[in-house]
TrEMBL record:
This is Phosphatase NudJ. The lineage of its organism: Bacteria, Pseudomonadati, Pseudomonadota, Betaproteobacteria, Burkholderiales. It comes from Paraburkholderia edwinii. SUPFAM superfamilies: Nudix. GO terms for molecular function: hydrolase activity. Its EC number is 3.6.1.-.
């Protein structure tokens, strides 16, 4: 029997600030309605920047332009029936264009613009502790240039 291959789940998230408010989504989760940055999984063939642009559009209907990487975050969620799941999250900050008329992902209930203080006042509603951590890192000025993350594309074997 071939041993199981372990791999973390790679996710992306967007921090968008406008007039002192942050773009967040309220979404259905297994734990009920939760608040999160626009976020989701990296898909096959995407760069991290492409993934965060796609996820932000799908979850908020706002076109997103990444401007910097805030940080890379690793979280391990233990589960009683398994070894758990490890997530590797790349969080970008940038600007959002005007909302489009596209439908939001089915799990998204609505988008909200909240201040950091409003978000701090409801941490029990956050999808993960990373929601506030990423906002705090953004407010602290943590930024890495987009070329900090290099994507090397490899063609078919020769």
């Amino acid at each position: 029997m071939k041993p199981e291959t372990w791999a973390p789940h790679v996710t992306v998230a967007a921090v968008v600030e406008r007039d002192g408010r942050f773009l967040v989504v309220e979404e259905h989760t297994s734990a009920g309605l939760r608040l999160n940055q626009p976020a989701g999984h990296l898909e096959t063939g995407e760069t991290l920047a492409e993934a965060v642009v796609r996820e932000t559009l799908e979850e908020t209907a706002h076109p997103f332009t990444p401007e910097a990487l805030i940080g890379v975050y690793m979280t391990h969620w233990a589960r009683p029936d398994s070894d758990g799941t490890t997530y590797l999250r790349f969080t970008f900050c940038g600007s959002a264009g005007a909302v489009t008329d596209r439908a939001l992902d089915p799990d998204i209930v609505r988008t909200l613009w909240m201040t950091a203080d409003e978000l701090r006042a409801c941490t029990e509603r956050h999808r993960t502790p990373l929601v506030m951590r990423c906002i705090d890192d953004y407010l602290a000025g943590k930024r890495f240039p987009l070329d900090f993350v290099h994507t090397h594309s490899v063609g078919p074997p020769r």
